[in-house]
Amino acid sequence: MPKSGERIGMNIVVYKKDSDEHVSTLWEGIGRILPELARTDVPVVLAVTGAGGKTTCIAALARELMDRGKRVLVVTTTHMYQPERYGVLTDDAAAIVRQMRETGIAVAGLPCDGGKISYIGDAAYHTAARHADVVLVEADGSRRLPFKVPGANEPVLPARCDAVLSIAGLSALGRSLQAVCFRWNEAADAARRFGRTFPQEAADGTVPLSISLFARLWQNCCLSGMAWDIPVLPVLNQADTPQHRIAASLIFQEMDLPAGLITSFAGKEGIPCI
């Protein structure tokens, strides 16, 4: 996780149907769309799902919140890579809380194969979360690809969750579905499971993703499965060029979404592999 005060080069745009607004931080952008998260009476719990920037998003949010004097707990309900800093590799809730009090952040998980960490368990999670101002939960995996189709049991949300950030990476544009998408061959099944139409031109996974095809796949095979009683905030990441930023707005327009975030994190400084 980044140290307090470290800067990550980034560009955050709040997309709305009638206008786009540049904001200075990711947390500010989230607040523009979900102002109810500004409360302070109980910890805010955000689950981060999808592909193409979950780790970077969590790292940026953690840094911003630390700069605001917030206590941040980062966990995974599945698996993520071990942190380079602020790791508490135990399910000892007292150790996790102590780390948050001393540094402002704890990245908690149990060591497992492949240099990864897993969920700390319900008892430790609920105890530690009560001492945080914000809890950031990595709630699924994507094998570092920019696009993914959720499995039947994904994402794995915590028992109480205030909002979900669902991320997709714009680097998938112009490339074949099978090259950029985790579980691409389950996309048609996902669309049927969600009661949506699968774009048949993507059936063999070889057609390059146009703006229209990206939008239809993301909406019909991913976001449509998130029909919960909590807000789902779509995030198009990797908007690293003017062309990608225009493409992101066009994708949101094609999906007829009222609001979303367009993000770019230009620097890797201070962002570990978690």
Mean pLDDT: 91
Structural class: alpha/beta
Helix content: 25-40%
> Can you tell me the overall shape?
globular
What is the CA-CA span between the terminal residues? 8 Å
Largest sheet: 10 strands, mixed
Low-confidence stretches: 1-8, 268-274
Instruction: Specify the CATH class.
Output: Alpha Beta
Beta-sheet strand percentage? 15-25%
Radius of gyration: 18 Å
Strand order of the largest sheet: 2-1-15-14-12-3-10-4-7-6
For the record, the CATH architecture stands as 3-Layer(aba) Sandwich
Overall tally of domains: 1
Oligomer: single chain
Order of SSEs, N→C?
Answer: EEHEHEEEHEEEHEEEHEHHEHE
Number of helices: 8
Reported by name, the CATH topology is Rossmann fold
Using DSSP, what is the number of strands? 15
